[in-house]
Structure formats: structure tokens, C-alpha cells
Specification:
The protein is mainly alpha-helical. It has five helices and no strands.
């Protein structure tokens, strides 16, 4: 019993001493006109926002990239996988831009599918 209590105490101390990062809404990043510069958004900002806001950003980026490629379909399953991978990458690389993270994740996804880009 004393070992369990000791382990719990260590867990509590470690949790209390680890820096907690408060989530920030996307509205924190809008300019005076209410816009977010999606090309300047950092991984730290994406990783530090609420899940709903990350979902919104993912949908926006998906539409942007699919529009550039003239694709008119949404692969919901793949979109969720890519969103997760981008967030994981962003948490590990907070100083990068989200568009850089997307490029890395897209390159990895294409490689998994055997697609080679010029």
C-alpha cells in the first residue's frame, strides 16, 4: 500500500511541476480586419489551439491545397489522419510554420503510397 501511495505522490509532483500549456482560441491570431495569415501561422499556434479550431484550420488547408490541385473531393478518413500527423509534427517542431509541417506530412504520405513528385 505504501508503494502505491509513494508512486501516486511522485506522479502528482511530476504533473504539478511540468509546464502546462493553456489552449488559445484562433481568434487570438486574427489581425485588425479579422483575418488569420495562414501562411504565417506557426506550429506552436496550431498545437496550442482548441481541437475545434485545429479541425477548422485543417478543413481550410485541405480546401486550399485541393483547390490548387483542382480536386473536388474530400477524403474524410485521410484528412483526419493527416491532421493528426500535422499536429504531432507541430508539437515536436513548434518553431516551424504550419505550411512547412503540411509539406513534410504530405511528402511522407505520398512516399507511403509510392507517389513520387518531381
Amino acid at each position: 500500500m505504501s508503494r502505491i501511495l509513494a508512486a501516486m505522490a511522485v506522479s502528482i509532483v511530476c504533473a504539478a511541476s511540468s509546464p502546462a500549456t493553456a489552449q488559445v482560441p484562433l481568434t487570438s491570431y486574427v489581425d485588425a480586419n479579422g483575418f488569420i495569415d495562414v501562411q504565417a501561422l506557426t506550429c506552436a499556434q496550431l498545437a496550442g489551439t482548441f481541437q475545434e479550431d485545429a479541425d477548422l484550420l485543417s478543413a481550410w488547408y485541405s480546401g486550399w491545397y485541393n483547390g490548387l490541385a483542382k480536386k473536388h473531393f474530400l477524403d474524410l478518413k485521410k484528412g483526419k489522419v493527416v491532421e493528426h500527423e500535422v499536429i504531432v509534427y507541430c508539437k515536436a517542431n513548434p518553431g516551424k510554420k504550419v505550411i512547412e509541417a503540411l509539406a513534410v506530412v504530405f511528402k511522407d504520405e505520398r512516399a507511403k503510397l509510392g507517389i513520387h513528385m518531381k
